[in-house]
Amino acid sequence: MADTRTEITEIVTGLGLFGFRDIERAQAARPRFIVNVDDGVYDRLDAAFAAGAHDQVFRTAYENGAVFARADDGLRGRPPWLVEWKGPHRPPAYEQIPADLRVDHVYLISCKYGSNILHNASPWHVFDRALSERAKQSGDWFASVAPESFQDFYATVREHVGDRSLPALVADLDADHRQLLKTALKGHWPAALRTDWQLVAFEIARASAARLLSAAGGRREREEFLWRVLRLQAAPYFVLGAGLDDEPLRYRVGTPWDFRNSFELRSFDMWGEHAGQPTVKWRADLLADDGTERVVEGHVEVRWSHGKFAGVPEAKIYLDTPHHEVAGYVPIDATGR
After folding, report:
1. Which end of the chain, N or C, is more open, meaning fewer C-beta atoms within 10 Å of its C-beta?
2. Model pTM greater than 0.90?
3. DSSP letters along 102-161, please?
4. Whole-angstrom Cα distance, residue 181 to residue 157?
5. Closest among 260, 266, 255, 256 to 289, alpha carbons compared
6. Containing H/E element for 288?
7. Number of Cβ atoms within 10 Å of the Cβ of 9
8. DSSP string spanning 239-268?
9. By 3-state DSSP, what share of the chain in percent is helix, strand and coil, each rounded to 5?
């Protein structure tokens, strides 16, 4: 079951499409034109609305739907016939478009609130496959890209923890060993390990960036990687949500064809950065068709998925450029018709 905040952001956005006078009337109507939303879900929404804990989220989601309903890029004042909520289902295959609502079988809407994360993937998928396809390979990315320094660091950790049941080689850690290390190293790195970890993290970051730049060696490959990072797909879709500052986000995500018609990629680069964990910065320099220069920036954080030494590392790709300034993202006019 989706959590309460997710249900609010997605379903209330759908309610905003129907032209009710206000959110109270929309919730009371419980329109059956929103598919996959039953009375149990509406009951939870009513209870959450009455409690007032998510008041701002309710208001923003409803207004986002109302803006899209009247926007020229959206429904242009025409009430929808059908709104399908995807809900908490598991997709049958890898989905490229992160849509939460489908309107009239045509308009795909992603409801994104309080996050600048573009992807949460395996490092193999990001740095070896350049996001082009799911990587079947998995394992310890840190040991793969920085085997010697990571092993040396593990030896220092093993000595610091002082538990001789831990194997001498990091590759020999089993689930019980990893749980032991997770518990022993909970919280911030101990002062005795912090500098060593920062050096290893920087090497991991540099090696990860080098792997991707090697996999995407030419300008065309790097441009295609940028499209995948920004989640540009063959069909346009819409993002309705709010940023980390709670300001509304409303934009259309264009296609690679749209991107090529408006922007020329001048350069794309990635590099490791000194940080508390392996961090790879990325930057695209573009020339717009009006002659202006545009920059899109972000970073990738590579970290253990369930605490230090616990779980396989994951790679989260963040967007650092404000959404409404990103090449390929077209703000939706709130005035409409």
Report:
1. N
2. yes
3. EETTTEEEEEEES--EEEEE-HIIIIITTTSS-----S-HHHHHSHHHHHHHHHHHHHHH
4. 9
5. 260
6. strand 279-288
7. 24
8. EEEE-TTS-EEEEEE--HHHHHHHEEEEEE
9. 40, 25, 35
